[in-house]
Amino acid sequence: MPHAQLKKDAAKMGSAGTARLLVLLLAFAWGFNWIATPFALPEVPVWSVRFAGSGLGAVTLFVAALLTGHSLKVPRGEIVHVMVAGLLNVTGFQIFSALAQMDGATSRAVMIAYTMPIWATLMSCALLGERLTRIRLIAFALCIAGISILLWPLLTHGVPRFVIYSLGCALVWAGATVYQRWMKVTVAPLANAAWQLVFGFLFIAAGTFIVEGYPHLWPINTTPLLALIYIGVFGVGLAHFLWWSIVGRLPTITASIGSLLVPVVGVVGSTLILGERPTASDIIGFVLIFCAAACVLLQPNVKHSEMPE
Question: Is residue 9 situated within a structural domain?
Fold first, then answer.
């Protein structure tokens, strides 16, 4: 083999190896995003937390993209579709997730939110005419079983509000993904993520002034301040930049494993850092929901276009 070809192959392998390492690091960045939120919420109201996080995230992502020469151009006629996706994927997801964590355990909120691949699959079958294959039926059955086992001990006094909020996370996230497929959006993934953050922030800003009067971001103690900075700069902005910069270099299965690690990090982190103690039904439910998501995300030759959170 020519020397030049050997160097090319070695560089390609090194690039793929680096991308895999970054995917692992990103799983921790997104997983700890869920852990950081409870440190901010006791002092900062829900809408203000998301105002700071989405605003810092949008600025960070734009700066990183522009400094590295990425194009943020949106094709003519697609800006409305990106705006709708931002309303669902950023505004809806972030507000629902914060409300869920206000009312319930973070570990439970994470796992219910990560039923998203199953709902996206069902929506795709209903709206896009995709086939409901055997593996998708198995995933749906595992998802329903997992949610039922997870929630059954909690339903003695009705459906907890955090369950509704957590399912809201999954449904708006899935809705944004399927909506963009339905509208055949062609904007580059990094530009798509950046503009979704911008529009999501604008909607959150409007909601903040309507619900809370103004963003309540000062004065606050050091811990919630650091949590807000982490959420915006690392958990939203840099994480999305790195994900969409490297995902094209990896096989779909490898990238999808990175997505699956996020709820694992979130659940384990909530136990070790937040002091939550999962019950036996929690653990069984987590495992079944994780297996359901894995069935969908690890299908060979299936490209996933969702924004991981």
Answer: no
Quote the Cα angle for 201-86-208, to 5°.
30
Q: Residue 177 domain-assigned?
A: yes
CA distance 108 to 162: 9
Site of tokens 């199953």: 118
pLDDT of residue 194: 94
d(CA 266, CA 36): 10
Give yes or no for a contact between 53 and 235, defined as CB atoms under 8 angstroms apart.
Answer: yes
Q: How many domains does the chain have?
A: 1
Classify 105 as helix, strand or coil.
coil
| Domain membership of residue 88 as a residue range | 43-297
Instruction: Tell me the C-alpha distance between 269 and 259, whole Å.
Output: 16
**Token digits of residue 204:** 């959150």
In the predicted model, is pLDDT for residue 103 greater than 80? yes
In a domain, 20, yes or no: no
